[in-house]
Amino acid sequence: MEPVIDQACAAALYADGDAGLDAGASLLAADPASDAELFRRGEEFVRRAWERGWQPADVVRTVRRELDETAAGIAAGLIGAETARYERLPPRWRAQLDALPEAPPRNRPDRFSYAFAVLGLYRLLLGLPAIEPVGPPPGAAEDALRRAPAPGEPRMLTRIRALLAKAEATGFPEEAEALTTKAQELMARHSIDEALLAARTHGTDAPGACRIGVDAPYETAKAILLDAVATANRCRSVWNSELGFSTVVGFDPDLDAVELLYTSLLVQGTVAMTRAEAGQRAGGRKRTKTFRQSFLMAYAQRLGSRLAADTARVTAEAEAGGGAEAGASPALLPVLAARDVAVTATAERMFPRTTTTRVRGATDLDGWTHGTEAADRARMAGRDPQLRGGRGKR
Fold first, then answer.
1. Are 208 and 252 in contact (CB under 8 A)?
2. Which residues fall within 8 angstroms of residue 299, CB to CB, at 6 or more apart?
3. How far apart, in whole angstroms, are the C-alpha atoms of residue 370 and residue 326?
4. 262-278 as b/e: b if 16+ CB within 10 A
5. How many CB atoms sit inside 10 A of residue 335's CB?
6. Residues 162-219: tens digit of each pLDDT
7. Closest CA to 49 of 130, 143, 114
8. Which of 66, 118, 240, 287 is buried most deeply by CB count within 10 Å?
9. pLDDT-based confidence at residue 24 (cuts at 50, 70, 90)
10. pTM (two decimals)
């Protein structure tokens, strides 16, 4: 006779609708002896996701988006168990694992409900498409896993994160601007130092990539904001609207800067939008969707313009001010140009077929005006160098 676990999986995973999940969950609820094998298969399904280019944060983000928080917690438990078998993990995986949600207790609130949630998760995992890898999977050859953050980088990122956290928390726009500017300066200094050091020592570091979630609502405006931040940090971003993330391509220090800065600017923009919207409602306005959309579009567009202008200015200042004291250091502009070429080539190799997204225009003048003002308050000064602009892609 076919094992219960096989019957349950056949009923739930390869049939459409909830009827198959009901049937499979009923079988599992009546057979506690299947629990161990059920979770072994879950780890196997997670392993298949790694082979198709997914990483822990990608999986949990998609599960949360398509199912619910309970399923995301179950996925996190499976991910933790599966990755515990490896001695070494790819770069960036440890931070993703540390951020996973807590796994819920098994078989709660009852065996049937839990089995239903598990089988629904497995169905989703089996249906994940292959995506462009942004790093080696766990279990890859040692040389593929050898890349790690530069020594001292964690301390720098800790300082930057602390500054941005204060910028998000303060209720004073001027203070937020000063804190964010200081964080930008630290990012710029670290990025330029890394570029010059690599050129001086003939380093062999190559561009890498990371994925950053771009969640609904107003995902188009958020993707534009991320693209602006990526461009200002000598990176390229490619948006996958269907799967809800952008892939950012660049050198490791710049990828870290993009992720931190985008997250902070999104928080600051959301807070400013909420305050502006409250003022609109106090004046008797009821419609808010178009206001929010226009606000975030203006916020993203304005920040992009200011970042581009600031980076051009600071590039010239860094080249003029660093040349005399740099001594044997290579000239800055050729170094940045070479890195820019490398990033562009990597992005084009990873995504040979991209299409430009047609952006729906903003329709709310008040939202646009408030969004522009919020971007000015969060404006970047002292930006690090950047030689090329970027275009939003998907």
1. yes
2. 221, 225, 269, 272, 273, 371, 372, 374, 375
3. 43
4. bbbbbebbbebbeebbe
5. 19
6. 988 998 888 777 788 778 777 767 777 777 777 878 888 777 788 999 999 999 888 9
7. 130
8. 118
9. very high
10. 0.82
